[in-house]
Design brief:
Number of helices: 8
Order of helices and strands: HHEHEHEHEHEHEEHEEEEE
Helix content: 25-40%
Shape: globular
Strand order of the largest sheet: 3-2-1-4-5-12-8
Distance between the termini: 24 Å
Number of strands: 12
Strand content: 15-25%
Length: about 280
Protein backbone atom coordinates (compact mmCIF):
# COMPACT_ATOMS: atom_id res chain seq x y z
CA UNK A 1 0.00 0.00 0.00
CA UNK A 2 1.36 3.40 -0.95
CA UNK A 3 1.99 6.29 1.41
CA UNK A 4 -0.91 8.09 -0.26
CA UNK A 5 -3.22 5.17 0.48
CA UNK A 6 -2.04 5.19 4.10
CA UNK A 7 -2.89 8.89 4.33
CA UNK A 8 -6.35 8.36 2.84
CA UNK A 9 -7.13 5.43 5.12
CA UNK A 10 -6.08 7.46 8.16
CA UNK A 11 -8.47 10.18 6.98
CA UNK A 12 -11.21 7.56 6.73
CA UNK A 13 -10.41 6.37 10.24
CA UNK A 14 -10.80 9.89 11.59
CA UNK A 15 -14.00 10.33 9.60
CA UNK A 16 -15.55 7.14 11.04
CA UNK A 17 -14.56 8.27 14.54
CA UNK A 18 -16.44 11.51 13.85
CA UNK A 19 -19.43 9.72 12.31
CA UNK A 20 -19.95 7.36 15.22
CA UNK A 21 -21.81 9.70 17.64
CA UNK A 22 -24.07 10.81 14.78
CA UNK A 23 -24.91 7.20 13.91
CA UNK A 24 -25.49 6.25 17.54
CA UNK A 25 -28.18 8.92 17.80
CA UNK A 26 -29.73 8.34 14.36
CA UNK A 27 -33.18 6.95 13.58
CA UNK A 28 -31.46 4.99 10.78
CA UNK A 29 -29.79 2.64 13.28
CA UNK A 30 -32.54 3.03 15.87
CA UNK A 31 -30.30 2.18 18.80
CA UNK A 32 -32.14 4.51 21.16
CA UNK A 33 -35.34 2.46 20.87
CA UNK A 34 -34.52 -1.21 20.38
CA UNK A 35 -31.80 -3.36 18.90
CA UNK A 36 -32.88 -5.64 16.06
CA UNK A 37 -29.65 -6.89 14.44
CA UNK A 38 -31.53 -9.35 12.21
CA UNK A 39 -33.08 -6.50 10.21
CA UNK A 40 -29.75 -5.88 8.49
CA UNK A 41 -29.77 -9.37 6.93
CA UNK A 42 -31.60 -10.67 3.90
CA UNK A 43 -33.12 -14.14 4.34
CA UNK A 44 -30.80 -15.46 1.62
CA UNK A 45 -27.75 -14.44 3.65
CA UNK A 46 -28.73 -16.87 6.41
CA UNK A 47 -29.40 -19.56 3.80
CA UNK A 48 -25.91 -19.09 2.36
CA UNK A 49 -24.19 -18.83 5.75
CA UNK A 50 -25.79 -21.99 7.12
CA UNK A 51 -25.52 -23.15 10.73
CA UNK A 52 -23.33 -20.84 12.83
CA UNK A 53 -23.73 -22.31 16.31
CA UNK A 54 -20.32 -23.22 17.70
CA UNK A 55 -18.52 -21.57 14.78
CA UNK A 56 -15.81 -18.91 15.00
CA UNK A 57 -17.11 -15.93 13.01
CA UNK A 58 -15.16 -12.76 12.22
CA UNK A 59 -16.97 -9.64 11.05
CA UNK A 60 -14.57 -7.31 9.24
CA UNK A 61 -15.22 -3.54 9.18
CA UNK A 62 -18.05 -4.03 11.68
CA UNK A 63 -18.69 -0.33 12.60
CA UNK A 64 -21.38 -0.44 15.36
CA UNK A 65 -21.42 -4.24 15.31
CA UNK A 66 -25.15 -4.95 14.84
CA UNK A 67 -24.48 -7.85 12.47
CA UNK A 68 -21.78 -9.15 14.80
CA UNK A 69 -24.36 -9.35 17.58
CA UNK A 70 -26.70 -11.29 15.28
CA UNK A 71 -23.98 -13.93 14.82
CA UNK A 72 -23.57 -14.22 18.59
CA UNK A 73 -27.33 -14.58 19.00
CA UNK A 74 -27.14 -17.53 16.60
CA UNK A 75 -24.58 -19.27 18.75
CA UNK A 76 -21.35 -18.21 17.05
CA UNK A 77 -18.16 -17.18 18.83
CA UNK A 78 -18.25 -13.74 17.25
CA UNK A 79 -15.47 -11.19 16.80
CA UNK A 80 -15.86 -7.76 15.24
CA UNK A 81 -12.96 -5.74 13.83
CA UNK A 82 -13.00 -2.10 12.80
CA UNK A 83 -10.47 0.66 12.16
CA UNK A 84 -12.40 3.23 14.23
CA UNK A 85 -11.69 3.37 17.96
CA UNK A 86 -14.96 5.20 18.56
CA UNK A 87 -16.91 2.55 16.64
CA UNK A 88 -15.28 -0.34 18.51
CA UNK A 89 -16.01 1.25 21.89
CA UNK A 90 -19.62 1.93 20.88
CA UNK A 91 -20.04 -1.60 19.52
CA UNK A 92 -18.76 -3.14 22.76
CA UNK A 93 -21.21 -1.02 24.75
CA UNK A 94 -24.13 -1.98 22.49
CA UNK A 95 -23.24 -5.68 22.73
CA UNK A 96 -22.99 -5.41 26.50
CA UNK A 97 -26.44 -3.87 26.77
CA UNK A 98 -27.79 -6.58 24.46
CA UNK A 99 -26.25 -9.32 26.59
CA UNK A 100 -24.24 -10.56 23.60
CA UNK A 101 -20.85 -12.21 24.08
CA UNK A 102 -18.83 -10.47 21.36
CA UNK A 103 -15.15 -9.50 21.27
CA UNK A 104 -14.20 -6.33 19.39
CA UNK A 105 -10.77 -5.44 18.07
CA UNK A 106 -9.59 -2.10 16.69
CA UNK A 107 -7.37 -2.54 13.64
CA UNK A 108 -7.03 -1.71 9.99
CA UNK A 109 -8.41 -4.65 8.02
CA UNK A 110 -5.02 -5.10 6.34
CA UNK A 111 -3.48 -5.65 9.79
CA UNK A 112 -6.15 -8.10 10.93
CA UNK A 113 -3.92 -11.20 10.94
CA UNK A 114 -1.44 -9.61 13.35
CA UNK A 115 -4.12 -7.84 15.40
CA UNK A 116 -5.90 -11.15 15.98
CA UNK A 117 -2.72 -12.99 16.88
CA UNK A 118 -2.87 -15.30 13.88
CA UNK A 119 -6.25 -16.71 14.93
CA UNK A 120 -8.25 -18.37 12.16
CA UNK A 121 -12.02 -18.53 11.67
CA UNK A 122 -14.70 -20.76 10.21
CA UNK A 123 -16.48 -17.76 8.67
CA UNK A 124 -15.34 -14.28 7.71
CA UNK A 125 -18.21 -11.88 6.96
CA UNK A 126 -18.05 -8.41 5.47
CA UNK A 127 -20.08 -5.97 3.44
CA UNK A 128 -22.86 -3.42 3.18
CA UNK A 129 -20.56 -0.50 2.54
CA UNK A 130 -17.18 -1.99 3.46
CA UNK A 131 -15.19 -2.79 0.31
CA UNK A 132 -15.41 0.75 -1.08
CA UNK A 133 -13.08 1.90 1.74
CA UNK A 134 -10.29 -0.47 0.68
CA UNK A 135 -7.79 0.64 -2.00
CA UNK A 136 -6.19 -2.76 -2.62
CA UNK A 137 -8.52 -5.75 -3.04
CA UNK A 138 -5.70 -8.18 -3.81
CA UNK A 139 -4.12 -7.48 -0.43
CA UNK A 140 -7.53 -7.68 1.24
CA UNK A 141 -8.28 -11.07 -0.34
CA UNK A 142 -4.86 -12.40 0.72
CA UNK A 143 -5.58 -11.22 4.27
CA UNK A 144 -8.97 -12.97 4.27
CA UNK A 145 -7.35 -16.20 3.05
CA UNK A 146 -4.96 -16.10 6.03
CA UNK A 147 -7.84 -15.49 8.44
CA UNK A 148 -9.77 -18.54 7.24
CA UNK A 149 -9.22 -22.10 8.37
CA UNK A 150 -8.95 -24.71 5.63
CA UNK A 151 -12.45 -25.06 4.14
CA UNK A 152 -13.42 -21.85 5.96
CA UNK A 153 -15.93 -19.59 4.25
CA UNK A 154 -15.93 -15.92 3.28
CA UNK A 155 -19.31 -14.29 2.88
CA UNK A 156 -19.74 -10.86 1.30
CA UNK A 157 -23.13 -9.12 1.36
CA UNK A 158 -22.27 -5.87 -0.35
CA UNK A 159 -23.93 -2.99 -2.14
CA UNK A 160 -23.85 -3.75 -5.83
CA UNK A 161 -21.35 -1.73 -7.89
CA UNK A 162 -24.31 -0.60 -9.98
CA UNK A 163 -25.90 0.98 -6.90
CA UNK A 164 -22.60 2.73 -6.18
CA UNK A 165 -22.62 4.01 -9.76
CA UNK A 166 -26.15 5.39 -9.30
CA UNK A 167 -25.15 6.83 -5.93
CA UNK A 168 -26.13 4.94 -2.76
CA UNK A 169 -27.03 8.28 -1.18
CA UNK A 170 -28.28 11.24 -3.26
CA UNK A 171 -26.03 14.25 -3.25
CA UNK A 172 -27.42 17.71 -2.59
CA UNK A 173 -29.50 18.81 -5.56
CA UNK A 174 -29.71 15.33 -7.13
CA UNK A 175 -33.11 14.04 -8.16
CA UNK A 176 -34.42 10.51 -7.76
CA UNK A 177 -33.88 9.50 -11.40
CA UNK A 178 -31.92 6.30 -12.06
CA UNK A 179 -28.92 8.01 -13.59
CA UNK A 180 -25.33 6.80 -13.74
CA UNK A 181 -23.43 9.35 -11.70
CA UNK A 182 -20.22 7.49 -10.81
CA UNK A 183 -17.86 4.89 -12.26
CA UNK A 184 -18.80 1.22 -12.15
CA UNK A 185 -15.27 0.07 -12.92
CA UNK A 186 -12.56 1.36 -10.63
CA UNK A 187 -9.75 3.40 -12.13
CA UNK A 188 -7.38 2.79 -9.25
CA UNK A 189 -7.92 6.33 -7.97
CA UNK A 190 -9.92 7.38 -4.95
CA UNK A 191 -13.12 9.37 -4.94
CA UNK A 192 -12.68 12.19 -2.45
CA UNK A 193 -15.74 13.22 -0.45
CA UNK A 194 -16.07 16.08 2.00
CA UNK A 195 -19.43 15.50 3.61
CA UNK A 196 -20.86 17.22 6.66
CA UNK A 197 -23.72 14.68 6.67
CA UNK A 198 -23.49 10.89 6.47
CA UNK A 199 -25.85 8.31 4.96
CA UNK A 200 -27.99 8.49 8.12
CA UNK A 201 -30.24 11.18 9.53
CA UNK A 202 -28.95 13.38 12.31
CA UNK A 203 -26.77 16.39 12.92
CA UNK A 204 -23.70 17.30 10.88
CA UNK A 205 -20.41 15.54 11.50
CA UNK A 206 -18.08 17.54 13.71
CA UNK A 207 -14.38 17.50 12.95
CA UNK A 208 -13.03 15.17 10.27
CA UNK A 209 -15.33 15.34 7.24
CA UNK A 210 -12.92 14.10 4.55
CA UNK A 211 -13.24 10.51 3.32
CA UNK A 212 -12.02 8.46 0.36
CA UNK A 213 -13.67 5.61 -1.52
CA UNK A 214 -12.55 3.22 -4.24
CA UNK A 215 -14.89 1.69 -6.82
CA UNK A 216 -14.65 -2.09 -7.25
CA UNK A 217 -16.62 -3.93 -9.95
CA UNK A 218 -17.76 -7.51 -9.45
CA UNK A 219 -15.04 -8.75 -11.77
CA UNK A 220 -12.38 -7.13 -9.60
CA UNK A 221 -13.82 -8.68 -6.43
CA UNK A 222 -14.03 -12.17 -7.94
CA UNK A 223 -10.58 -11.86 -9.51
CA UNK A 224 -8.99 -10.86 -6.19
CA UNK A 225 -10.56 -13.81 -4.37
CA UNK A 226 -9.59 -16.35 -7.03
CA UNK A 227 -6.08 -14.90 -7.05
CA UNK A 228 -5.85 -15.50 -3.30
CA UNK A 229 -6.72 -19.16 -3.76
CA UNK A 230 -10.39 -19.02 -2.73
CA UNK A 231 -13.02 -20.80 -4.79
CA UNK A 232 -16.33 -19.09 -5.53
CA UNK A 233 -19.29 -21.24 -4.55
CA UNK A 234 -22.21 -18.87 -4.98
CA UNK A 235 -22.94 -15.40 -6.33
CA UNK A 236 -26.39 -13.90 -6.19
CA UNK A 237 -27.79 -10.44 -6.98
CA UNK A 238 -30.77 -8.86 -5.22
CA UNK A 239 -33.07 -5.96 -6.10
CA UNK A 240 -33.84 -5.12 -2.46
CA UNK A 241 -32.17 -2.81 0.06
CA UNK A 242 -32.55 -2.58 3.85
CA UNK A 243 -33.52 1.10 3.55
CA UNK A 244 -35.42 3.21 0.92
CA UNK A 245 -32.69 4.73 -1.27
CA UNK A 246 -35.32 6.32 -3.56
CA UNK A 247 -38.62 7.79 -2.30
CA UNK A 248 -40.66 5.69 -4.73
CA UNK A 249 -39.38 2.39 -3.29
CA UNK A 250 -41.97 0.03 -1.80
CA UNK A 251 -41.62 -2.04 1.33
CA UNK A 252 -41.63 -5.79 0.65
CA UNK A 253 -42.89 -8.65 2.86
CA UNK A 254 -39.26 -9.11 3.99
CA UNK A 255 -39.28 -5.61 5.52
CA UNK A 256 -36.76 -4.38 2.97
CA UNK A 257 -37.33 -2.03 0.02
CA UNK A 258 -37.67 -2.52 -3.74
CA UNK A 259 -38.21 -0.19 -6.69
CA UNK A 260 -41.79 -0.20 -8.05
CA UNK A 261 -42.75 -2.49 -10.93
CA UNK A 262 -42.76 0.52 -13.24
CA UNK A 263 -38.99 0.95 -12.74
CA UNK A 264 -36.24 -1.18 -14.31
CA UNK A 265 -35.37 -4.23 -12.22
CA UNK A 266 -31.71 -3.80 -11.35
CA UNK A 267 -29.34 -5.37 -8.79
CA UNK A 268 -28.77 -3.25 -5.68
CA UNK A 269 -27.04 -5.80 -3.44
CA UNK A 270 -25.04 -8.96 -4.02
CA UNK A 271 -24.08 -11.96 -1.93
CA UNK A 272 -20.90 -13.90 -2.60
CA UNK A 273 -19.85 -17.13 -0.89
CA UNK A 274 -16.24 -18.28 -1.27
CA UNK A 275 -14.29 -21.05 0.42
CA UNK A 276 -10.63 -21.49 1.22
Amino acid sequence: MTDEHERMMKANQANWDARTPVHLASRFYGLDTSLDPERWFAAWEWEDLGELAGRDVLHLQCHLGAETIAFAHRGARAVGLDVSEASVKAAADIAGRAGADVAYVRANVYDAVEALGGRQFDVVYTGKGALCYLPDLDRWAATVAQLLRPEGRLYIAEFHPLLNSLGPKPAEGEGSELLLRHDYLGRGTAVHRNGRYTYTDGPPVEGATDSYEWMHGLGEVVGALVGAGLRIERLRESDELPWPRWPEMNRTPSGWWRLPDSSPRIPLLYGLLARR
